[in-house]
Amino acid sequence: MKTCIKLLLAALFLSSCVQETHLKTVTFQVDMKGIENVSDVGIRGSFTPNQWTETVPLTDEDGDGIYEGTFSQKTAIYQIQFKFVNQNEDYELKGKDNRVLVFKYEPETIIYKGVFNDETKVEITKK
């Protein structure tokens, strides 16, 4: 009986599937208009280097108050969680859930538009 259980467990481990990875390219845009003392705007999340401990900078190249950055990674994950950050450590949505972006199991190019500290104003465009 023990031999059968060991063989069954070995078969399960040896036949376990490794999900195929797909390229995910996400451009995050955050509207900072109306926010006081805007500086060092960025993003922290489950997908960034040094998850949640280091802000990845977003930039406002045209000075319109909308900061953005693009991230690309081959991955098999189905969702990411994140928050936008002001002044390098001032998280938005204090006391509220993280923002969540759910992926399909295929390559994707996504534009995520949000407003700092307002989880109701979100626009997600998938190409």
CATH superfamily: Immunoglobulins
Radius of gyration: 19 Å
Q: How many H/I helical runs?
A: 1
The CATH C-level name is: Mainly Beta
CATH architecture: Sandwich
Q: Care to count the β-strands?
A: 9
Proportion of beta-strand residues: 35-45%
Written overview of the protein:
- By secondary structure, the chain is mainly beta.
- It has a single domain, classed as Immunoglobulin-like, CATH 2.60.40.
- 10% of the residues lie in helices and 45% in strands.
- The protein contains one helix and nine strands, in the order H-E-E-E-E-E-E-E-E-E.
- The chain is globular.
- The termini are far apart.
- The relative contact order is 0.24.
Q: Nutshell version of this structure?
A:
With 127 residues, the chain is mainly beta.
